Amino acid sequence: MTTPEGQNGDTKCGLVAVIGAPNAGKSTLVNQLVGQKVAITSAKAQTTRARLMGIALEGAAQIILVDTPGIFEPKRRLDRAMVNAAWEGTQAADAVLLLVDPIKQRRHELMPLLDALKDRPERKILVLNKVDIAPKEKLLQLAQEFSALVDFSDVFFVSALTGDGVPELKAHLAMLMPDGPWHYPEDQVSDASERLLAAEVTREQLYKQLHDELPYDSAVRHEKYEQRKDGSVAIHQQIVIARDSQKGIVLGKGGSRLKAIGEAARKELADILGVKVHLYLHVKVDENWADKREIYEEMGLDWVR
């Protein structure tokens, strides 16, 4: 186990659960705290599915960030699995960080969340996002309102997008971490396998490039991951959609859309993995994919009724 130089093993390590309404900016904040991309971001709500962890370092402290799926009112099995994962992510945490988008707010999802947090024993921190564009008066008003509902130990104002206020938040989280050995090597930034990360990167490109054309009910499945003799990696993935009518949307004219998705994902994966990447994508229609246990297991979610 690598420990920070000059610390003589006098290290701190703890778990911080990052929760909030869908699309509050949780993944963007986790990426800022870690200092590089470990979770996918999208303008589409509920993009985080797997309970991916980011691992941030601050001095002698290792902060393990549980990037939970946005907590919302579950309607389908996949929704229930995601909400289940979110609450599981808060258990045994040394701190629970509630991130709020002061502009969208999504009060219909935020208020039940505040109500559920009220009686939880973990140390609770309120973080108001978008300090770069939200009026100061509104931020202060929300901080006051929410602090009256839940016993937050601290309130921070940040911009997950620009990084404003994030160093102060990170330093505070490091201070809260209990004494103990680091759980991960110094150079590890996530507990996600390269296979899961690769699938997440492709799924992010699906959202980015198809916007509202493709519904939320799509998945990217890992098929094969090969290390080649020349040091490059060959990754084979399957894009699963629920209806045959969606196939043309993903493929595009003459396969142009699928090619663009693959090229963008391939470039990003090459940057993340530090090697040349060959990415092979194909599209499969499966009306019942959201009811298959193995797909949930691949995404790191529990199978729920």
TrEMBL record:
GTP binds at residues 20-27, 67-71, 129-132. Residues 129-132 are annotated as: G4. InterPro entries: G_ERA_dom, GTP-bd, GTPase_Era-like, KH_dom-like_a/b, KH_dom_type_2, KH_sf_prok-type, P-loop_NTPase, Small_GTP-bd. It is found in: Cytoplasm; Cell membrane. NCBIfam families: era, PRK00089.1, small_GTP. An essential GTPase that binds both GDP and GTP, with rapid nucleotide exchange. Plays a role in 16S rRNA processing and 30S ribosomal subunit biogenesis and possibly also in cell cycle regulation and energy metabolism. PANTHER family: GTPASE ERA, GTPASE ERA, MITOCHONDRIAL. Monomer. This is GTPase Era. It comes from Alteraurantiacibacter lauratis.
